[in-house]
């Protein structure tokens, strides 16, 4: 089958206008993590009208639709879109801006949902492929790990997949430009907390106290240099301090009994993640020991690193090249510092995650900001990518 071009999708004006209206309706009615009842209802009703078998309520508000190709084949793939919004007050001034105070689609999940709905419709109209496609509409990507919850709720038990794929818009990058890479592409997003416990005391007589501030300061200073000596230059890791709490602002002459430091750690491979977790505790204990300060370390693993399978990246690259041309595909993109809970799915099933440019014009805003808006011109590009991916995966018997 010939590749599907975005221009051919855009030429179906009624189809694109309908999907644009759906996208903007979802944008106007944002729902945050595990509250995507209205959005899930729109998705499920759409898939049911297409004649698919639809499973509602997986991972609380997730939806899965299943489509069997009209040619014999045993391979099964999953295509995933996220549905949730963020707790941000919208400032776009758009006619379809959020109608919910304090919530908005500031990451483009409204567009991701509409793109996969459109691909599902085109594939249902012409299921000329060998095998099965599961359309996975996931809740709670933003911070609460909806992918993990769907898996725990039986996602891959009920819908086994040989491979899974996901797409995310890429703001402030030329429209349609595709980036991805094999191996670690998105970082693990972990949080850590170190508490230094002393006794406190009078600021004029520190020798009569156990002062936790000195080892706390040494610990912070050691984080950057330790990374360079514990993590190979060919790998990446970032440790940042985001919160320091000790004492009272009105009592600068009192040595506090406790210093609390919190931060984030970003890594791209499981082994480096293990190294960083151990290193943070070791640095804290080492700084505290000479001062008889007690240390308590809490390291919370939130989202794992997103690790693309090389084989599935090759399939994604074929689909992307067919969609936008090889010159607009970067197969060796710089690892991204953000985290993405599709990583949980990739821990269970091999697959690939790509990002597609959302446009870089003067009005282009970054994700997670009050002025961000998904570019509707990306809809036919994203739909064409999904169709070409299904053909790359399942087009041959």
Automatic annotation (TrEMBL):
Residue ranges of every copy of the Peptidase M20 dimerisation domain listed in the record: 191-288
Residues that coordinate or bind Mn(2+): 107, 109, 142, 168, 368
SUPFAM superfamilies assigned: Bacterial exopeptidase dimerisation domain (SSF55031), Zn-dependent exopeptidases (SSF53187)
The entry's keywords: Hydrolase, Manganese, Metal-binding
InterPro entries linked: Amidohydrolase, Bact_exopeptidase_dim_dom, Peptidase_M20, Peptidase_M20_dimer
Cofactor(s) the protein requires to work: Mn(2+)
Any GO molecular function: hydrolase activity
Entry note: cofactor: The Mn(2+) ion enhances activity.
Membrane-spanning parts: none
Record-linked PANTHER family: METALLOPEPTIDASE, PUTATIVE (AFU_ORTHOLOGUE AFUA_6G09600)-RELATED, PEPTIDASE M20 FAMILY MEMBER
Protein's name in the database: Hippurate hydrolase
Organism, scientific name: Thalassovita litoralis
């Amino acid at each position: 089958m010939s590749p599907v071009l975005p221009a051919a999708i855009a030429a179906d004006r009624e189809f694109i206008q309908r999907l644009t209206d759906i996208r903007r309706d979802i944008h106007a009615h944002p729902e945050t993590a595990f509250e995507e009842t209205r959005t899930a209802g729109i998705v499920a009703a759409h898939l049911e009208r297409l004649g698919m078998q639809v499973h509602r309520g997986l991972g609380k508000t997730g939806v899965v639709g299943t489509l069997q190709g009209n040619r014999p084949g045993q391979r099964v793939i999953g295509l995933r879109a996220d549905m949730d919004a963020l707790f941000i007050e919208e400032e776009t001034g758009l006619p379809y801006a959020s109608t919910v105070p304090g919530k908005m689609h500031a990451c483009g999940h409204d567009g991701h949902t509409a793109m996969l709905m459109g691909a599902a419709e085109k594939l249902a109209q012409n299921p000329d492929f060998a095998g099965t496609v599961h359309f996975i509409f996931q809740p709670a990507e933003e911070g609460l790990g909806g992918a993990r919850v769907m898996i725990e709720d039986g996602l891959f038990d009920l819908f086994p997949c040989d491979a899974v794929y996901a797409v995310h818009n890429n703001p402030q990058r030329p429209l349609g430009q595709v980036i991805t890479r094999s191996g670690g592409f998105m970082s693990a997003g972990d949080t850590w907390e170190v508490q230094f416990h002393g006794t406190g005391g009078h600021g004029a007589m520190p020798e009569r106290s156990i002062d936790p501030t000195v080892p706390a300061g040494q610990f912070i200073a050691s984080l950057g240099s330790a990374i360079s000596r514990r993590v190979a230059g060919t790998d990446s890791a970032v440790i940042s301090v985001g919160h320091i709490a000790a004492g009272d602002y009105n009592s600068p002459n009192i040595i506090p009994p406790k210093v609390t430091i919190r931060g984030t750690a970003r890594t791209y491979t499981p082994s480096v993640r293990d190294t960083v977790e151990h290193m943070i505790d070791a640095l804290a204990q080492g700084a505290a020991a000479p001062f008889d300060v007690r240390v308590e370390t809490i390291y919370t693993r939130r989202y794992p690193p997103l690790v693309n399978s090389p084989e599935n990246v090759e399939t994604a690259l074929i689909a992307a090249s067919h969609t936008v041309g090889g010159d607009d595909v970067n197969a060796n993109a710089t690892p991204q510092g953000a985290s993405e809970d599709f990583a949980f799915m990739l821990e269970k099933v091999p697959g690939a995650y790509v990002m597609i440019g959302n446009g870089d014009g003067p009005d282009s805003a970054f994700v997670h900001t009050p002025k961000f808006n998904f570019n509707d011109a990306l809809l036919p590009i994203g739909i064409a990518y999904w169709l070409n991916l299904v053909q790359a995966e399942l087009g041959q018997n």
